Amino acid sequence: MDTNKKIIEEKDTQDVLLKYLSQERKPEINEAPTTSININPNVKVSEADFVAIDAQMMPMRDFYPIGTMIMVRPLKTTEIQAYSLVTENIADVYDKLNNAFQSSVRVKYPNGEIKSYLDVKDGDRFYLAYKIRELTYSAAKVLTVKESCECGTETTIEYFTHNFNLLSIPEPLKEYYDSYKRCFVLPVGNTVYEIAPPSIGIQRDITNYIAALAKKNKDKKTTIDLSFVKTVPFLIKGNSISEKGIEAKIQEFKSMDRDDFNDLDNFITAIILGVDTIKGVCPSCDSEVHTSNLFPYGFKSLLTKPNPFTSNN
């Protein structure tokens, strides 16, 4: 599917976010609060059918505290049913994944604190969906594609997360990465910026704000500053930001020195992270064979089984 290939080839999560904003977005029903979901502190995650994944295995691994665990569980039938209504509209995909993550994902920090899916880095969204898929369905239901090896042998590539090749921090940016702070530290003009990929919560709050603004001013000509959407989420820590907080960031953004903005924008543009390719092993020569198509059967198949009654599955 061309749309899916383009999204994974671009790598940059913010490119997907810009697509999200450009498409019509239906209001979410019963959205989780912008801080965290209600979690019973008396129930240990290990007792609730959750499986712990070391955040260091995730695409955004360099931006979680060492020792952070992403807790996930298989989806229930009702959750699969809810996600099955997803369309190929990226805005709808984001909303449906958020709804699925709300009950199936938690983040456990080294100090024992447990937070909701909103603390997960937005760039880990699709990797996490595949991990949940692995837990939900048997190995026999794994997604597969066929690719030709250089030796000519047709090779099956299985969409298990252990077959995902992840991108590393680009070489020119490594000197700015602070392993203690778990973010980039970039001096620009008279300001030192701490830069990291945004959480799902921050991404959602900003897109909700802009969607609400566009709806409120639907009869007026409203211009959304996409450079703000692309840049500012990388500068916001935590898993939520209020409407007033976003408006304050907008004012800061507008007052930024032109040269400082260009330096900051160039740096953030260079942050290309995520899933690079999915690999398989040729049965004839043992060479690795790769595909860059993260969504071979469309977005719906992320959390549902492909439809065997359609021609493209």
Topology summary:
Layout: H1 2-10, H2 13-22, E1 51-54, E2 69-72, H3 77-83, H4 90-104, E3 105-108, E4 114-116, H5 125-136, E5 144-148, E6 154-158, E7 164-166, E8 177-178, E9 183-188, E10 191-195, H6 200-216, H7 226-231, H8 243-254, H9 258-269, E11 275-281, E12 288-291
Antiparallel strand pairs: 1-2, 2-3, 3-4, 5-6, 7-11, 8-9, 9-10, 11-12
Question: TL;DR?
Answer:
Helices cover 32% and strands 17% of the residues.
Care to describe what's here?
- The N and C termini lie close together (12 Å).
- Residues 1-14 and 20-47 have low confidence and may be disordered.
- The chain has one domain.
- With 313 residues, the chain is of the alpha+beta class.
- It is built from nine helices and twelve strands.
In this structure, how is the largest beta sheet organized? 4 strands, antiparallel
Question: Helix segment count?
Answer: 9
State the end-to-end distance. Answer: 12 Å
Seen as an oligomer or otherwise, the chain set is single chain
Q: Mean pLDDT, nearest integer?
A: 84
Count up the domains.
Answer: 1
Assess the beta-strand content as a share of residues: 15-25%
* Element order: H for helix, E for strand: HHEEHHEEHEEEEEEHHHHEE
Please compute the radius of gyration using only Cα atoms: 20 Å
Number of strands: 12
Low-confidence stretches: 1-14, 20-47
Q: What is the approximate shape?
A: globular
Looking at this protein, list some descriptive labels.
four-stranded antiparallel sheet; 9 helices; three-stranded antiparallel sheet; 313 residues; alpha+beta
